[in-house]
Amino acid sequence: MTFSARHLLGIEPLHPVEITTILDLADKYVDLNRQPNKHGDALRGLTQINMFFENSTRTQASFELAGKRLGADVMNMAMQASSIKKGETLIDTALTLNAMHPDLLVVRHPHSGAVDLLAQKVNCAVLNAGDGKHEHPTQALLDALTIRRAKGRLHRLNIAICGDISHSRVARSNLILLGKMENRVRLVGPPTLMPSGIGEFGVEVYEDMAEGLKDVDVVMMLRLQRERMDGGFIPSEREYYHRYGLDAEKLAHAKPDAIVMHPGPMNRGVEIDGDIADDINRSVIQEQVEMGVAVRMAAMDLLARNLRAPKDEGVYV
Q1: Band (312; pLDDT cuts 50, 70, 90)
Q2: What reaction does this catalyse (predicted)?
Protein backbone atom coordinates (compact mmCIF):
# COMPACT_ATOMS: atom_id res chain seq x y z
CA MET A 1 0.00 0.00 0.00
CA THR A 2 1.17 3.53 -0.68
CA PHE A 3 0.57 6.97 0.75
CA SER A 4 1.74 9.58 -1.73
CA ALA A 5 0.16 12.80 -0.47
CA ARG A 6 2.42 15.76 0.22
CA HIS A 7 -0.18 17.52 2.36
CA LEU A 8 -3.31 16.51 4.26
CA LEU A 9 -5.74 19.25 3.24
CA GLY A 10 -8.93 17.21 3.06
CA ILE A 11 -10.44 13.76 2.69
CA GLU A 12 -11.56 14.37 -0.89
CA PRO A 13 -8.13 13.78 -2.55
CA LEU A 14 -7.46 10.57 -0.59
CA HIS A 15 -7.94 7.15 -2.16
CA PRO A 16 -9.64 4.52 0.05
CA VAL A 17 -6.33 2.64 0.20
CA GLU A 18 -4.62 5.75 1.59
CA ILE A 19 -7.35 6.13 4.21
CA THR A 20 -6.80 2.51 5.23
CA THR A 21 -3.04 3.11 5.36
CA ILE A 22 -3.48 5.98 7.83
CA LEU A 23 -5.89 3.96 9.98
CA ASP A 24 -3.66 0.88 10.03
CA LEU A 25 -0.66 2.92 11.16
CA ALA A 26 -2.83 4.78 13.69
CA ASP A 27 -3.82 1.41 15.18
CA LYS A 28 -0.15 0.79 15.94
CA TYR A 29 0.14 4.21 17.55
CA VAL A 30 -2.87 3.45 19.77
CA ASP A 31 -0.85 0.54 21.14
CA LEU A 32 2.22 2.76 21.62
CA ASN A 33 0.20 5.40 23.44
CA ARG A 34 -0.99 2.82 25.94
CA GLN A 35 2.58 1.84 26.87
CA PRO A 36 4.51 3.34 29.83
CA ASN A 37 7.04 4.68 27.28
CA LYS A 38 4.91 6.49 24.71
CA HIS A 39 7.70 7.93 22.59
CA GLY A 40 8.83 7.14 19.05
CA ASP A 41 11.33 8.79 16.73
CA ALA A 42 9.45 9.12 13.43
CA LEU A 43 9.67 12.94 13.57
CA ARG A 44 13.05 13.24 15.25
CA GLY A 45 14.98 16.22 13.88
CA LEU A 46 11.86 17.75 12.32
CA THR A 47 10.13 21.00 13.28
CA GLN A 48 6.35 21.21 13.66
CA ILE A 49 4.58 24.57 13.87
CA ASN A 50 0.94 24.74 15.01
CA MET A 51 -0.96 27.80 13.77
CA PHE A 52 -4.47 28.04 15.17
CA PHE A 53 -6.35 31.12 14.01
CA GLU A 54 -9.40 29.73 15.83
CA ASN A 55 -9.54 28.57 19.43
CA SER A 56 -9.17 24.84 19.93
CA THR A 57 -8.70 22.48 22.85
CA ARG A 58 -8.82 18.89 21.60
CA THR A 59 -7.32 19.36 18.15
CA GLN A 60 -4.44 21.62 19.14
CA ALA A 61 -3.58 19.58 22.24
CA SER A 62 -3.63 16.30 20.33
CA PHE A 63 -1.47 17.64 17.48
CA GLU A 64 1.03 18.99 20.00
CA LEU A 65 1.07 15.72 21.92
CA ALA A 66 1.35 13.70 18.70
CA GLY A 67 4.35 15.69 17.51
CA LYS A 68 6.16 15.51 20.84
CA ARG A 69 5.56 11.78 21.20
CA LEU A 70 7.20 11.26 17.81
CA GLY A 71 10.21 13.40 18.67
CA ALA A 72 9.48 16.63 16.75
CA ASP A 73 10.42 20.11 17.92
CA VAL A 74 6.93 21.57 18.38
CA MET A 75 6.10 25.29 18.42
CA ASN A 76 2.63 26.70 19.06
CA MET A 77 2.12 30.14 17.53
CA ALA A 78 -0.30 32.45 19.36
CA MET A 79 -2.11 33.69 16.27
CA GLN A 80 -4.43 35.95 18.30
CA ALA A 81 -1.34 38.01 19.24
CA SER A 82 0.50 37.56 15.94
CA SER A 83 1.39 39.98 13.16
CA ILE A 84 -1.90 39.04 11.47
CA LYS A 85 -3.53 41.34 14.01
CA LYS A 86 -1.14 44.09 12.91
CA GLY A 87 -2.25 43.84 9.30
CA GLU A 88 0.08 41.21 7.88
CA THR A 89 -1.51 39.16 5.13
CA LEU A 90 -1.79 35.38 5.24
CA ILE A 91 0.64 35.18 2.29
CA ASP A 92 3.27 37.25 4.11
CA THR A 93 2.83 35.09 7.18
CA ALA A 94 3.39 32.00 5.03
CA LEU A 95 6.54 33.47 3.51
CA THR A 96 7.86 34.37 6.96
CA LEU A 97 7.25 30.86 8.23
CA ASN A 98 8.79 29.36 5.11
CA ALA A 99 12.00 31.24 5.84
CA MET A 100 12.19 29.40 9.18
CA HIS A 101 12.30 26.02 7.34
CA PRO A 102 9.60 24.11 9.23
CA ASP A 103 8.87 20.55 8.18
CA LEU A 104 5.23 20.24 9.30
CA LEU A 105 2.70 23.04 9.48
CA VAL A 106 -0.62 22.41 11.26
CA VAL A 107 -3.22 25.10 10.50
CA ARG A 108 -6.74 25.87 11.68
CA HIS A 109 -8.39 28.88 10.05
CA PRO A 110 -11.93 30.36 10.06
CA HIS A 111 -12.02 30.77 6.27
CA SER A 112 -12.53 27.90 3.84
CA GLY A 113 -9.57 27.53 1.49
CA ALA A 114 -7.08 29.44 3.63
CA VAL A 115 -5.11 26.32 4.53
CA ASP A 116 -4.88 25.31 0.86
CA LEU A 117 -3.56 28.79 0.04
CA LEU A 118 -0.86 28.44 2.69
CA ALA A 119 0.11 25.03 1.33
CA GLN A 120 0.78 26.60 -2.07
CA LYS A 121 3.27 29.07 -0.57
CA VAL A 122 5.39 26.90 1.72
CA ASN A 123 7.90 24.13 1.13
CA CYS A 124 6.81 21.94 4.05
CA ALA A 125 3.96 19.49 4.60
CA VAL A 126 0.69 21.17 5.65
CA LEU A 127 -2.07 19.54 7.69
CA ASN A 128 -5.54 21.04 7.74
CA ALA A 129 -6.82 21.20 11.33
CA GLY A 130 -10.11 22.69 10.13
CA ASP A 131 -10.84 25.50 7.66
CA GLY A 132 -14.16 27.31 7.87
CA LYS A 133 -17.06 25.13 6.79
CA HIS A 134 -14.87 23.22 4.34
CA GLU A 135 -13.06 20.23 5.87
CA HIS A 136 -11.58 18.76 9.05
CA PRO A 137 -9.79 15.66 7.71
CA THR A 138 -8.12 14.36 10.87
CA GLN A 139 -11.45 14.48 12.73
CA ALA A 140 -13.06 12.30 10.06
CA LEU A 141 -10.09 9.92 10.20
CA LEU A 142 -10.24 9.59 13.99
CA ASP A 143 -13.99 9.04 13.76
CA ALA A 144 -13.36 6.33 11.16
CA LEU A 145 -10.78 4.65 13.39
CA THR A 146 -13.18 4.77 16.34
CA ILE A 147 -15.94 3.17 14.26
CA ARG A 148 -13.64 0.50 12.84
CA ARG A 149 -12.35 -0.51 16.27
CA ALA A 150 -15.86 -0.57 17.79
CA LYS A 151 -17.59 -2.34 14.90
CA GLY A 152 -14.76 -4.41 13.49
CA ARG A 153 -15.15 -2.88 10.03
CA LEU A 154 -15.58 0.41 8.19
CA HIS A 155 -17.85 -0.54 5.32
CA ARG A 156 -21.54 -1.28 4.75
CA LEU A 157 -22.64 0.29 8.01
CA ASN A 158 -25.72 2.48 8.53
CA ILE A 159 -24.51 5.76 9.98
CA ALA A 160 -26.63 8.74 11.04
CA ILE A 161 -25.04 12.19 11.32
CA CYS A 162 -27.37 14.42 13.29
CA GLY A 163 -27.69 18.12 14.00
CA ASP A 164 -26.08 21.18 12.46
CA ILE A 165 -24.95 19.76 9.13
CA SER A 166 -24.89 23.06 7.26
CA HIS A 167 -22.15 24.73 9.33
CA SER A 168 -20.10 21.63 10.10
CA ARG A 169 -16.77 20.86 8.44
CA VAL A 170 -16.77 17.65 10.51
CA ALA A 171 -19.97 16.54 8.78
CA ARG A 172 -18.54 17.31 5.34
CA SER A 173 -15.31 15.37 5.90
CA ASN A 174 -17.19 12.43 7.41
CA LEU A 175 -19.65 12.38 4.52
CA ILE A 176 -16.79 12.12 2.05
CA LEU A 177 -14.82 9.51 4.00
CA LEU A 178 -17.76 7.29 4.89
CA GLY A 179 -18.97 7.44 1.30
CA LYS A 180 -15.57 6.39 -0.01
CA MET A 181 -15.66 3.40 2.35
CA GLU A 182 -19.08 2.23 1.06
CA ASN A 183 -21.27 3.10 4.03
CA ARG A 184 -24.91 4.17 3.98
CA VAL A 185 -25.08 7.67 5.47
CA ARG A 186 -28.16 9.47 6.74
CA LEU A 187 -28.37 13.14 7.69
CA VAL A 188 -30.86 14.06 10.38
CA GLY A 189 -31.77 17.60 11.40
CA PRO A 190 -34.05 20.57 10.79
CA PRO A 191 -34.24 21.94 7.22
CA THR A 192 -32.68 25.21 8.39
CA LEU A 193 -29.50 23.33 9.31
CA MET A 194 -29.19 21.36 6.07
CA PRO A 195 -26.91 22.73 3.34
CA SER A 196 -28.40 23.59 -0.03
CA GLY A 197 -28.00 20.93 -2.69
CA ILE A 198 -27.67 18.18 -0.08
CA GLY A 199 -29.35 15.75 -2.48
CA GLU A 200 -26.20 15.74 -4.61
CA PHE A 201 -24.23 14.05 -1.81
CA GLY A 202 -25.98 10.71 -2.32
CA VAL A 203 -27.30 10.54 1.24
CA GLU A 204 -30.71 10.10 2.85
CA VAL A 205 -32.10 13.16 4.62
CA TYR A 206 -34.53 13.03 7.54
CA GLU A 207 -36.25 15.71 9.60
CA ASP A 208 -37.50 13.24 12.20
CA MET A 209 -35.02 11.62 14.62
CA ALA A 210 -37.10 8.46 15.10
CA GLU A 211 -37.11 7.79 11.37
CA GLY A 212 -33.52 8.84 10.85
CA LEU A 213 -32.13 6.66 13.64
CA LYS A 214 -34.12 3.53 12.78
CA ASP A 215 -31.76 0.52 12.75
CA VAL A 216 -28.53 2.52 12.43
CA ASP A 217 -25.17 1.16 13.63
CA VAL A 218 -23.64 4.55 14.47
CA VAL A 219 -25.18 7.77 15.78
CA MET A 220 -22.89 10.77 15.29
CA MET A 221 -24.13 13.93 16.99
CA LEU A 222 -22.91 17.42 16.05
CA ARG A 223 -22.91 20.58 18.13
CA LEU A 224 -24.70 23.75 17.11
CA GLN A 225 -22.03 25.92 15.42
CA ARG A 226 -23.31 29.21 16.81
CA GLU A 227 -20.11 31.02 15.86
CA ARG A 228 -20.89 30.36 12.19
CA MET A 229 -24.57 31.30 12.35
CA ASP A 230 -25.78 34.72 11.29
CA GLY A 231 -29.50 34.33 11.94
CA GLY A 232 -32.23 32.42 13.74
CA PHE A 233 -31.70 28.84 12.61
CA ILE A 234 -33.60 27.28 15.54
CA PRO A 235 -36.53 28.54 17.63
CA SER A 236 -34.72 27.91 20.95
CA GLU A 237 -32.22 25.50 22.47
CA ARG A 238 -35.01 23.96 24.53
CA GLU A 239 -37.11 23.25 21.44
CA TYR A 240 -34.04 21.99 19.58
CA TYR A 241 -33.24 19.51 22.35
CA HIS A 242 -36.84 18.31 22.43
CA ARG A 243 -36.81 17.51 18.70
CA TYR A 244 -33.17 16.73 17.90
CA GLY A 245 -31.27 16.22 21.15
CA LEU A 246 -30.18 12.60 21.60
CA ASP A 247 -31.80 10.97 24.62
CA ALA A 248 -32.67 7.39 25.58
CA GLU A 249 -36.06 7.52 23.85
CA LYS A 250 -34.61 8.57 20.50
CA LEU A 251 -31.59 6.26 20.77
CA ALA A 252 -33.96 3.30 21.26
CA HIS A 253 -34.78 3.50 17.53
CA ALA A 254 -31.16 2.62 16.63
CA LYS A 255 -29.78 -0.90 16.79
CA PRO A 256 -29.29 -2.22 20.34
CA ASP A 257 -25.51 -2.20 19.85
CA ALA A 258 -25.34 1.18 18.10
CA ILE A 259 -22.51 3.43 19.26
CA VAL A 260 -22.86 7.13 20.05
CA MET A 261 -20.27 9.66 18.86
CA HIS A 262 -19.65 13.39 19.25
CA PRO A 263 -16.64 15.38 18.00
CA GLY A 264 -16.79 17.81 20.94
CA PRO A 265 -17.08 20.16 22.57
CA MET A 266 -20.46 18.92 23.77
CA ASN A 267 -23.43 21.05 24.73
CA ARG A 268 -25.11 18.73 27.20
CA GLY A 269 -28.85 19.19 27.24
CA VAL A 270 -28.79 20.79 23.78
CA GLU A 271 -27.66 18.14 21.28
CA ILE A 272 -27.11 15.24 23.67
CA ASP A 273 -28.32 14.06 27.06
CA GLY A 274 -25.56 13.85 29.65
CA ASP A 275 -26.47 10.30 30.66
CA ILE A 276 -26.13 9.12 27.06
CA ALA A 277 -22.80 10.91 26.63
CA ASP A 278 -21.46 9.15 29.75
CA ASP A 279 -22.91 5.70 29.04
CA ILE A 280 -19.84 3.46 28.80
CA ASN A 281 -21.89 0.79 26.99
CA ARG A 282 -22.97 3.07 24.13
CA SER A 283 -20.81 6.19 24.06
CA VAL A 284 -17.36 6.14 22.39
CA ILE A 285 -16.77 9.86 22.85
CA GLN A 286 -13.72 9.40 25.06
CA GLU A 287 -12.36 6.81 22.62
CA GLN A 288 -12.62 9.46 19.89
CA VAL A 289 -10.32 11.72 21.91
CA GLU A 290 -7.82 8.88 22.33
CA MET A 291 -7.94 7.98 18.64
CA GLY A 292 -7.30 11.64 17.77
CA VAL A 293 -3.74 11.52 19.09
CA ALA A 294 -2.97 8.25 17.28
CA VAL A 295 -4.44 9.40 13.95
CA ARG A 296 -2.48 12.66 14.03
CA MET A 297 0.69 10.75 14.85
CA ALA A 298 0.05 8.49 11.85
CA ALA A 299 -0.72 11.37 9.49
CA MET A 300 2.40 13.32 10.42
CA ASP A 301 4.54 10.17 10.28
CA LEU A 302 3.39 9.39 6.72
CA LEU A 303 3.84 12.98 5.53
CA ALA A 304 7.31 13.06 7.09
CA ARG A 305 8.24 9.89 5.20
CA ASN A 306 7.21 11.60 1.98
CA LEU A 307 9.34 14.63 2.91
CA ARG A 308 12.34 12.36 3.18
CA ALA A 309 11.53 10.19 0.15
CA PRO A 310 12.88 10.92 -3.35
CA LYS A 311 10.70 13.38 -5.23
CA ASP A 312 7.57 11.97 -6.91
CA GLU A 313 7.76 8.70 -4.97
CA GLY A 314 5.10 7.52 -2.53
CA VAL A 315 5.85 5.92 0.78
CA TYR A 316 5.44 2.15 1.01
CA VAL A 317 4.17 1.00 4.40
Answers
A1: low
A2: carbamoyl phosphate + L-aspartate = N-carbamoyl-L-aspartate + phosphate + H(+)
